[in-house]
Amino acid sequence: MKDLKELNRSELIDEFEKAGFPSYRGEQVFNWLYKNGVSAVEEMKNIPKKMRQFIDENYELSDLKEINRSTAVDGTVKYLWELNDGENIEGVYLPFPKSGRHSTCISTQVGCGLGCSFCATGIDGLQRNLTTGEIVDQVIKIQKDISGSNFAEPRLSNVVFMGMGEPLANFDNLMKAVEIINADQGLNIGMRKMTISTAGLVPEIKKLARTNDQIGLAVSLHAPNDRLRNKIMPINKKYNLNQLLTAVIKYIEKTGRRVTFEYVLMDSVNDSPELSVQLAELLRGINCHVNLIPANPVPELGIERPVQKVIDSFYETLDRNGIQVTLRKEMGTQIDAACGQLKRNKN
Ligand code: SF4
What gap in Å lies between CA 26 and CA 186, rounded to an integer? Predict the structure, then answer.
């Protein structure tokens, strides 16, 4: 059966029109799903019984089942959900009381096929892509959790596709989810408030630039030279730093948006003073921002966080060289909020 959450607004309207229902009924269903966050057809109160029956007989509704959650003292919540086929994914809610932002970081795949040496998600490889409905449902579940069943305040303001998986490896499902999350008759989260993260899939970065959407791009860089990047991020052997940065520069030209480079600082892996100088040189002149993230320890992969002196010195070198840089405030470290860790702890 087709999942209702696979359909964007115009597809929903078409679908029901073809079945003989007036177009406003499709709009009403869209509103129920994304303005009210209902998870069952019976809850769509102004939809006639005959149409609800039709929906029940012909469609299913993605519905993630929460099987675990951890809440940190800073308000970060990490969710573990079960999908219909028994696979697990995770998502995180991050409140920023000072700026009033309510952000969420969600998954796009079960597992990941890119095998970065420092990443817990990649350990078991890729199981499968998430469907559009499963991607969108994570946002709905978190919105419902923070606002209660009235689905009103607070509203989620930002969505970051940086949970489990490589978002651009699931391009079509991701972009349809983006369209649904963005629709002003529904969740209404602006394109500029969404960010897609990538480990460096060059053809898809180019494709994303061609969509002309104003969506943010974050590139997981983690190394400033091919030798080290090949070692810790195998995708670099396919698309090296030169190819990656060329695509990123084109993305910036096309969208006019500043790109973020994520750099997870790992003890004795990529945190030396030489590498900080190399990174500053590599990014000089690019309209970008570097987000330094001290690693959360991943014991089974031997990943440790550098001592504070090393972190500060790496930051200062970038700053001194004119690179816009921030040191990510650690949110949720006590709940294992690094990619893939909650799921692994459950297994
Ligand atoms: S860091 Fe990202 S791209 Fe690399 S294996 Fe983990 S989830 Fe995949």
Answer: 13
CATH of domain 2-60: 1.10.150.530
Probe residue for ligand 1, chosen from 119, 205, 219, 220 as the CB with the greatest number of ligand atoms within 8 Å: 119
Is the domain defined by 65-346 classed in CATH 3.20.20.70? yes
- The pLDDT profile of the chain, 347 residues, written as one tens digit per residue, is 889 999 999 999 999 999 999 999 999 999 999 999 998 999 999 999 999 999 999 999 989 999 999 998 989 999 999 999 999 999 999 999 999 999 999 999 999 999 998 888 878 899 999 999 999 999 999 999 999 878 888 999 999 999 999 999 999 999 999 999 999 988 999 999 999 999 999 999 999 999 978 999 999 999 999 999 999 999 999 999 999 999 999 999 999 999 999 999 999 999 999 999 999 999 999 999 999 999 888 888 889 999 999 999 999 999 999 999 999 765 555 444 445 555 555 44
In the chain, ranges of CATH 3.20.20.70 domains: 65-346
* Residue given tokens 């002309």 in the structure block: 212
Please give the structure tokens belonging to residue 241.
């730093």
Q: Given the CA of residue 109, which atom of ligand 1 is nearest to it?
A: 7
Q: Ligand 1 centre and the CA of 165: distance in Å?
A: 6
166 CB near ligand 1 (under 6 Å): yes
Which are the catalytic amino acids? 90, 339
Domain with CATH 1.10.150.530 in the chain: 2-60
Helices 132-147/171-182 angle, 10° precision = 40
Give the separation between CA 159 and CA 164, rounded to whole angstroms.
14
Nearest residue (CA) to ligand 1, atom 4: 116
Residue 302 CA: distances (Å) to CA of 122, 123, 239, 296, 297:
14, 13, 26, 11, 8
